[in-house]
Every structure is written in structure tokens, then in C-alpha cells.
Amino acid sequence: MLSVEHVDLSYNGVRVVESVSFRVGPGEIVALIGGNGNGKSTILKGVSGILHPVSGKVTFEGRDITRLEAHRIVGLGISHVPEGRRLFPFLSVYKNLLLGAYLVADKKEVEERMEYVYSIFPILKERAAQKAKTLSGGEQQMVAIGRGLMSKPKLLMLDEPSWGIAPILVDRIFEVIGEIRKNGVTVLLVEQDVEAALDICDRAYVVQTGRIVLEGPGKELLDSEVVRKAFLGL
Ligand SMILES: Nc1ncnc2c1ncn2[C@@H]1O[C@H](COP(=O)(O)OP(=O)(O)OP(=O)(O)O)[C@@H](O)[C@H]1O
Ligand SMILES: [Mg+2]
User: Fold this and answer.
1) Is the dihedral angle over the CA atoms 124, 181, 98, 119 positive or is it negative?
2) What does the radius of gyration of the chain's CA atoms come to, in whole angstroms?
3) How distant, in Å, are the alpha carbons of 110, 172, 207, 215 from that of 150?
4) Alpha-carbon distance 156 to 74, whole Å?
5) How many Å apart are CA 137 and CA 213, to the nearest integer?
6) pLDDT for 31-72, tens place per residue?
7) Which DSSP symbol is given to 54?
8) What is the pLDDT of residues 139-185, one digit of tens each?
9) Of 195, 215, 148, which is closest to residue 176 (Cα–Cα)?
10) Which of 23, 21, 22, 19 is nearest to 9 (CA)?
11) pLDDT for 75-130, tens place per residue?
């Protein structure tokens, strides 16, 4: 479904991602794991068109999207839920969700989508009129994921969904990621909670200093000595 081939990414001429290649198949949950500053978020930006690769190729459903503008990539079915949520703090939950569907003209379709998001996160329906900034961290993450779902993506990219969330809500967020996949959405997940990510994913790639250094099925990596030593402190 998504294929990233030998992609290089840089900020102001400084290369931070080097020759990264990976694939995501339809219906999979694929995780990118690795420590701070290794280039995970940058890779997601390179897929969603926030950054354009210096070299290499990104293909989505057989179509070259390497140089496509970000809004057109959303239109093709890729949704990027960024690190740190990036909500509009003074807008209501409802309006924040609505912004995720800005490319959808059909009002009925938008309302159906909203009901789908509320069915996954019932608390957001109760909080619909509340300003986003008054929500708990976990609830804000639900709004961010909900907003990402409002564009009806085929591929949902989640950057650190567990960031700054109470452990009990982290479990709920990971449950929801499983449900979203069951509903037919493919998921590309970036996570620092390596154990949780490897547990839920089908396959994972380990990103280190802008390169992919290891890949394999989640369960296999969970047992691998390198991953256990580097990330799980075992
Ligand atoms: N907007 C930017 N301008 C310049 N350099 C940046 C920018 N964003 C990130 N970088 C640099 O690129 C490198 C990779 O950053 P990136 O955010 O992709 O890492 P990450 O793996 O997502 O880290 P974290 O786990 O902390 O989120 C880092 O050295 C970072 O300082
Ligand atoms: Mg990051």
C-alpha cells in the first residue's frame, strides 16, 4: 500500500534521514520505533508531504506521491496525526474534529464520519462543546486521532499517541488502534512506548540516527536481544 524507497530527508540542507526504505501492506499495523531525535517524525512528514524527500521515492497504492502537496496526499487517503496533537485550544472539540474533514464537501458524509468518531470515543460526544484546551491529555489525544479519522483515511499515521497520557488511557488508546485497524484502516505508528508498539504491531522497523537498522515482526523484535537491551532495559 505504502512504499518508501531510499528516501533522504533534510532540514535546511542538513540531512537527518538517510536512505530509508520500508513498506506498509493493506490492513497492517506497522511501527517505527527508536529513541529521541532519530528521525521517526521526520519520516512521517516525508510521507504526508509536510517535507519533500531530497531523493528517493514514496509510492501510495501504486501512485508516486513523492512531490505531491500535503493536502492532495490527504485527499488520496493518508492522514497524519502529528506529535504533540496540535489541536486548536480555543476551538470546541466538535470544531477541531470538523477541521479534519475540510476536504469533504458533503455535509451528510461529514456527520456520518463524526458519528463514527463518537462511536469510538463516546467521551468526545459528551465534551463536544467544550474547548479543546480544557480536556485531559488523553482526551486531547482522542480528539487528535478523531480529527485524523475525519478525512476517512485508508492509511492513518500516528506519531506518539501515548505521549503525555495516564497509563490507563494509554491502554485505551492502543485498544482503539486495534479497533481502527479492524474497521479496515491501515496504521503506521511511531511510538516511544516500544513494548506497547511491538505488542500491537504486525511488523516494526527500528530507526537509529536516520537509518533503519533492524526490522521484523513485532513479537520477534520484542524477544530480540538488541531491542531488549536498547529499549526495554532488560
Ligand atoms: N523543523 C526542524 N528543523 C531542523 N531540524 C529538525 C527539525 N525537526 C527535527 N529536526 C532534527 O531532525 C532530527 C530528527 O528529528 P525527529 O523529530 O524526526 O526525531 P524523532 O525520532 O521523531 O524524535 P522524538 O522521539 O524525540 O520525537 C533531530 O536531530 C532533530 O533535531
Ligand atoms: Mg518524533
Assistant:
1) negative
2) 17
3) 7, 20, 29, 31
4) 10
5) 32
6) 999 988 999 999 999 999 999 999 999 999 999 999 999 999
7) S
8) 999 999 999 999 999 999 999 999 888 888 888 899 999 999 999 99
9) 148
10) 19
11) 999 999 999 889 999 999 999 999 999 888 889 999 999 999 999 999 999 999 99
Q: Is residue 28 classed exposed, middle or buried when 0-12, 13-18 and 19+ CB atoms within 10 A define those classes? A: middle
Check pocket membership of 141 for ligand 1, CB cut-off 6 A. Answer: no
Other residues' Cβ atoms within 10 Å of the Cβ of residue 126 = 12
d(CA 50, CA 79): 12
The β-bridge partners of 4 are 22, 58
Q: Which atom of ligand 1 is nearest to the CA of 45?
A: 18
Domains of the chain by range and CATH?
2-231 (3.40.50.300)
Closest C-alpha residue for ligand 1 atom 6: 11
The owner of cell 501492506 is 25
C-alpha cell at 73: 496526499
Q: Is the pTM of this model over 0.90?
A: yes
Q: Report the separation in Å between the CA atom of 23 and the middle of ligand 1, taken as the mean of its atom positions.
A: 22
Ligand 1 within 6 A of CB of 66: no
Question: Which residues hold their Cβ within 5 A of ligand 2, which is an ion?
Answer: 41, 83
